[in-house]
């Protein structure tokens, strides 16, 4: 290390180097030069220190830009491909750092940028950890829900303890339009056996999500028994799901079935005209048509379910219901025909 002082009272005196010997840590060394300066055995006196300083200046003057060459790995006998790859990468990164606008900033400002970058990297790493924990948490929730649903299927008799599909499971597998567990319980409870095709179609409209109406619907007497049985069965199914740790309110579920279009569907299946059935409820005509088409699709699914368990009586009833629904203007390809 050297400093300078001027003589003659602060005018234009000659440059006088002040050489000091200091100790530095390894982490403070940025690079090692391949140029070696032979120093005397002792640097105790100022004369010897000045000689060493002059040798350094002379060595620097021998190279362009007074930049001493950096020692290369080959000079240490390192000729492996890995060393060459790392050396090339180091050179590339050094060039990129030198070309960066931050390199032209003062040291204090560069350190501030480096500190902000480290904080950003720490946030990115933390975000990745949290995302991984979130994925594990979601998988755990899915596994828990899957176990609960399997318990429901076993309790309701859709699968055996060994996971083999039973008759109820075959029926439920055919139903996609509405709650298959509830429909399956209604079938095996024998409710549809006590109703005619028109009553079955009217009752099944309760299973669809529809526009809530403020109007109070008074059910026809022939539809009241089926609706009451549906609510009781829904309450039983929901309680089983609740006992198996699925998030459901049995009472709210059993009260969620709307009767807004039951009378309309019953009259349509009885052969009434479109004008007559539209007067039986306050829903828009387009909404009635959409629901009736969904109902006809559900009837076809129930026909397939009856075939799956070999119940010809139910199959015939569901086919009859489908025929009663699929008629007239509701199933025209275009309303302009």
What do you see in this structure?
With 337 residues, the chain is mostly helical. It has helices at residues 46-61, 81-99, 107-156, 167-174, 180-188, 197-204, 221-243, 250-254, 262-269, 274-278, 285-309, 312-325; strands at 2-5, 16-19. The protein contains 12 helices and 2 strands, in the order E-E-H-H-H-H-H-H-H-H-H-H-H-H. A two-stranded antiparallel sheet has the order 1-2.
Q: Total number of helical segments? A: 12
Overall spatial form = rod-shaped
Radius of gyration: 44 Å
- Uncertain runs are 7-11
Q: What is the tally of beta strands?
A: 2
String of helices and strands: EEHHHHHHHHHHHH
Q: What are its keywords?
A:
rod-shaped; two-stranded antiparallel ribbon; 2 strands; 56% helix; 337 residues; mainly alpha
Summarize the model shown:
The protein is built from twelve helices and two strands. It is mostly helical and 337 residues long. It has a two-stranded antiparallel sheet with strand order 1-2.
Topology:
Layout: E1 2-5, E2 16-19, H1 46-61, H2 81-99, H3 107-156, H4 167-174, H5 180-188, H6 197-204, H7 221-243, H8 250-254, H9 262-269, H10 274-278, H11 285-309, H12 312-325
Antiparallel strand pairs: 1-2
Helix pairs in contact: 4-5, 4-11, 5-7, 6-7, 6-9, 6-12, 11-12
């Amino acid at each position: 290390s050297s400093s300078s002082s001027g003589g003659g009272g602060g005018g234009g005196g000659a440059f006088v180097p002040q050489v000091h010997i200091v100790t530095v840590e390894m982490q403070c060394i940025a690079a090692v030069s391949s140029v070696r300066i032979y120093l005397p055995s002792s640097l105790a006196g100022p004369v010897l220190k000045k000689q060493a300083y002059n040798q350094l200046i002379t060595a620097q003057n021998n190279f362009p830009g007074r930049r001493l060459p950096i020692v290369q790995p080959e000079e240490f006998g390192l000729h492996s491909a890995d060393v060459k790859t790392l050396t090339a990468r180091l050179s590339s990164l050094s060039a990129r750092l030198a070309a960066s606008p931050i390199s032209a900033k003062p040291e204090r400002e560069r350190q501030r940028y480096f500190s902000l970058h480290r904080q950003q990297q720490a946030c990115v790493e933390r975000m990745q950890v949290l995302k991984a924990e979130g994925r594990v948490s979601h998988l755990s929730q899915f596994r828990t829900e899957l176990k609960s649903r399997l318990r429901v299927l076993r309790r309701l008799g859709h699968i055996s303890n060994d996971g083999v599909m039973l008759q109820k499971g075959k029926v439920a597998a055919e139903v996609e339009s509405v709650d298959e567990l509830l429909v399956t319980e209604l079938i095996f409870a024998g409710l549809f056996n006590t109703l005619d095709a028109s009553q079955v179609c009217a009752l099944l409209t309760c299973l669809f999500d529809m526009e809530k109406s403020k109007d109070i619907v008074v059910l026809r007497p022939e539809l009241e028994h089926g609706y009451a049985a549906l609510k009781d069965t829904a309450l039983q199914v929901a309680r089983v799901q609740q006992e198996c740790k699925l998030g459901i309110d049995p009472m709210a579920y059993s009260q969620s079935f709307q009767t807004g279009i039951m009378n309309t569907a019953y009259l349509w299946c009885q052969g009434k005209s479109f004008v007559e059935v539209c007067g039986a409820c306050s829903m828009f005509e387009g909404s009635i048509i959409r629901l009736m088409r969904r109902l006809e699709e559900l009837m076809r699914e129930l026909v397939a379910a009856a075939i799956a368990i070999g119940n010809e009586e139910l199959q015939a009833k569901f086919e009859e219901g489908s025929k009663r629904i699929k008629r007239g203007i509701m199933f025209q390809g275009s309303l302009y025909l």
